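Query form — protein Nicotinate-nucleotide pyrophosphorylase [carboxylating]

QUESTION: What is the three-dimensional structure of this chain?
INPUT:
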Amino acid sequence: MNDPLSPLTRLVTEPLVRSALLEDLGLAGDLTSESVVPHDTHHTFEIVARESGTLAGLDLAALAFELVGPRATFTAYLGDGDRLRAGDAVARVSGPARSLLAAERVALNFLGHLCGVATATATLVDAVAHTRTRVCCTRKTTPGLRAVEKHAVRAGGGVNHRFGLDDAVLVKDNHLAVAGSVTEAVRRVRARVGHLVAIEVEVDSLEQLDELLRDPVHAVLLDNMSPQTTAEAVRMVGGRMVTEASGRITAETAPALAEAGVDLVSAGWITHSAPVLDLGLDATSTSG
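ANSWER: The structure tokens for Nicotinate-nucleotide pyrophosphorylase [carboxylating] are given below.
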């Protein structure tokens, strides 16, 4: 069994949650709850999965309740990375009812989106589980949410690609067009970056791959290649570079590419287009 996934630092998550709460509460606060719910009412709710999936984002949900209602208590029944079934209770939250209801939508928005990312990732991970190939994400993330979406990818069993333009080199087709050739692009990169910076080059033909193999880098991105061409590319590389396949990767297309022998398959949709997982906040008891 894998070790539990460590939560992201609060330095990362708190600004995101604060911003979302400010957007929702505005200057006047929750007019509905303050009108309907007596100020001294305490309540207990459970967060419940309405459908099956993979859990992620629990710490952001807990933080939303904490920031609005400091007297709230949040008890998690499960952890990020756990598989959910419809009807599973994920966590319990108790405290002043007004505060909990004011935080409800922000908590569930984060939780539903990040569970959706984790679930989408797990779908691909399951599809290639019979191979050694790993699933990774891309930089195609929601602006401002990259850190938490990439965390959700890990919760779903995937691994992370680079977090930004500054932590690795990825020479893509437009870079090659400007440089004029694979060889020249790699030469320019090697002259610029330090020895600890990983370099990856995207190729879309075996001819480009052959050119790259004259001066191999850390990794090669095999873009939009058929499974047959991918298998030939893996054979040509012969273990000298990490091989990554990309291009409309789905649960239906991933197995054939994985069986071709690539180290990684990468997909942007698992972060930018993952369907939200449906979770709800269900009332269990009232006091006060």
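ADDITIONAL NOTE: Residues 126-272 form a domain with the TIM Barrel fold (CATH 3.20.20.70).
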